[in-house]
Structure formats: structure tokens, C-alpha cells
Amino acid sequence: DIEGDGDVDVFVTQHSFHHTAFVNDNGNGFTATTIAHNNSIVNTTSPAVVGDVDVDFTVENVFTFGKVAIDLTAGVGIPLGGDYSSSETVFAFGGVAKYSWDKFDLTQSVKYHLVDDYTYMPILGGFIADNVFEGQTSLKYKASDKFTIGANCGQYYTDGESTITAGPSVSYVLTNNIDLHGSVDFILNDDLDVENMDTVVSFGVGFKF
């Protein structure tokens, strides 16, 4: 049996390697980006530290409709056998619609995770034994060259369980290589097998080399 605990704090560190290739077709180009990253998870209910290797692939601006651009995404998550690793390799695919005007950026992304046995997703209460649909809506305002504020809405669905979140986010470019970001997501509705959640607070520091 797979059991979860709703009262859990999870700390995630992510080490990423990006490779970007730009393909130009008479000035109408698209960008293909491969991102390989290792997620190290520390759960406050257990001192175990585990790592999964995720590889995400994005092809940007595959379709354009006026000011709207569509990206296609795919990913694979390879478990390393820790206490909170997935049981098997997890595949994902989806897309992102983007629209920008003046200092505003609006994005809508969808992603479908193919889960073979189980995977660990804290936003859905812990271990999940079914495929997961994820939708993210984000509206960002670039207040300056360094400071961006946003509003986000997330939707997560699996067989018999779901979570809907909404809240603000901020990001600040400290230097060309370092950025700070944080968000607070309030639970608007959840239908989980574990104790209901109240809020999800995220913060982090990004480094680029």
C-alpha cells in the first residue's frame, strides 16, 4: 500500500545543465532546449536525501498565431532508488502557450505525466500511483529590468485526487548569474486521500554558469 502524510515540508535543490540550439528558417526560427537536472529532496519527516535525474526537452515557437507562440515539451524522470524516488522511469509530454504585450507575459502550460507504478508528488499529498495531469497559468509583470511580479494558478489531477492552487510570485535578478525567486500558493480546492493542505511556500536561488 502507498501511504502519504499531508503535514510535510519538502526542500528541493536542483542542479541543471542547459543546452540550447537555435534553428533559423528564413528568419522564422525556433529554439530547442535540453535541460538535464538532478532533484535532491529532503523531507522533514525523514532525514533521507534522494535524487532523481530529470531530462526536459523544449522546442520553442513551434507554432505562432499572431502574438501567441506555442512550445512543445517532453521529459523523462529517472529514479535513483531513494526513499522518495519514483518506482520506474516517468515520462511526460505537454505544451506551453505564450502571449506577451508591453511588460506583461501570459503563459498557459499543460503536462501529462505517465506513471508506471508510483511517483512522489508532494502537491498531491505524497506518493501517486496513477498518471498525473498538470496545468499552470501564469501572468507576470516586469516591473523593471531586474524585478518581476506574477500571479499563478496550478491544477493537478490524478485518479480520484486533485489540487488547485493560486497565489503570487516574485523574482529578482541579483546579478547576471544569480536570481532570487519565491511564491506562495494557497489551496483553493483539494480532494486528497491525506490531510488537506493549506498553503505551499516556495523560495530559491538560481545560479547560471
Write the layout of secondary structure elements.
Layout: E1 10-23, E2 30-43, E3 46-65, E4 68-79, E5 90-101, E6 104-114, E7 119-121, E8 126-128, E9 132-142, E10 147-158, E11 161-173, E12 178-191, E13 199-207
Antiparallel strand pairs: 1-2, 2-3, 3-4, 4-5, 5-6, 6-9, 7-8, 9-10, 10-11, 11-12, 12-13
Output the helix-strand order. Answer: EEEEEEEEEEEEE
Q: Figure out the total of helices.
A: 0
Count of DSSP E strands?
13
Average pLDDT value?
79
Helicity, in percent?
under 10%
**Cα gyration radius (Å):** 18 Å
Q: Numbering strands along the chain, what is their spatial order in the largest sheet?
A: 1-2-3-4-5-6-9-10-11-12-13
Question: Which structural class is indicated by helix and strand composition?
Answer: mainly beta
Specify the biggest β-sheet. 11 strands, antiparallel
Quaternary state of this entry equals: single chain
Percent strand: over 45%
The 3D shape can be described as globular
Intertermini distance:
43 Å
Short description:
By secondary structure, this protein is mainly beta. Helix content is 0%, strand content 71%.
What would your notes on this structure say?
- The protein has 209 residues and is an all-beta fold.
- It is 0% helix and 71% strand.
- The chain has strands spanning 10-23, 30-43, 46-65, 68-79, 90-101, 104-114, 119-121, 126-128, 132-142, 147-158, 161-173, 178-191, 199-207.
- The strands form 2 sheets. The chain has an 11-stranded antiparallel sheet, with no helix packed on it. Strands 7-8 form a two-stranded antiparallel ribbon.
- Strand 1 and strand 2 (30-43) form a beta hairpin.
- It starts with 9 loop residues before the first strand and ends with a strand.
- The model is unreliable at 1-8, 18-22, 24-29 and 36-48 (pLDDT under 50).
